[in-house]
Amino acid sequence: MSDLSAFPITTRWPAQQPDRLQLYSLPTPNGVKVSIMLEELGLPYEPHMIDIGRNETWTPEFLALNPNGKIPAIIDPDGPGEQPIALFESGAILLYLAEKTGRFLPADPVLRYETIQWVFFQMAAVGPMFGQVGFFHKFAGRDYEDKRPLERYVAESKRLLGVLETRLAGRTWIMGEAYTIADISLLGWVRNLIGFYDAGDLVDFASLVQVPAWLERGLARPAVQRGLSIPLRP
Ligand SMILES: N[C@@H](CCC(=O)N[C@@H](CS)C(=O)NCC(=O)O)C(=O)O
């Protein structure tokens, strides 16, 4: 039986099954990357719902796991050297899980770095830019009189969607025939932009061909569907 008592987060969110990977998350575009990956892998894990609306990521127990105060984060009791490992940042977690299992990341070095490149593209560009569209279009920033920030983030998001549109031409997935962590990192963000953020018209999503078809293919995957609502919101 694994002992996770050295991790303060387990005092607030106790592990019922400490031998399983512990997921601390919420079904947001960053959170679902990890739940989708875990569902795709079929790894046993125990999800813990972290309520960001109640600032639970800013509690001392959560901050001890992620000093940056954000979901998702994990503890894998079966980490390298058979020691537990704690990780935050969804991109790092995707890479860790891909390397641990040898799945969803090509073994060929060139293809592997190409995949990682697209994961970084999501982490550095798509996530931050789409998130700002959400803030200025759907959340508090909606009431700001000055519309220039919204316009700037919409323009950049449209440009990024154009990059994806070009990349996906003639490809089923970002890496061609292989479904990888690049797709897993991006699907939730594109879905959220046109769904929850209601920004489809703003970014002229209807003018795209490849991205909507890719999104539909991704959303048709049962593991993606399951991962999109894990951990269950109350
Ligand atoms: N770069 C981080 C971003 C994580 C992030 O922004 N998480 C948001 C939810 S999508 C969060 O926890 N927000 C809580 C807060 O800022 O209070 C990652 O990809 O893991």
UniProtKB/TrEMBL annotation:
Looking at the record, the residues that make up the GST N-terminal domain are 18-105
Q: Which residues form the GST C-terminal domain?
A: 108-234
Pfam families in the record:
GST_C, GST_N_2
| GO MF assignments | transferase activity
**Transferase found in the keyword field:** yes
Keywords per UniProt? Transferase
Q: Entry's CDD domains?
A: GST_C_Ure2p_like, GST_N_Ure2p_like
Per the record, the domain of life is Bacteria
Q: What is this protein called?
A: Glutathione S-transferase
Species, as recorded:
Oleomonas cavernae
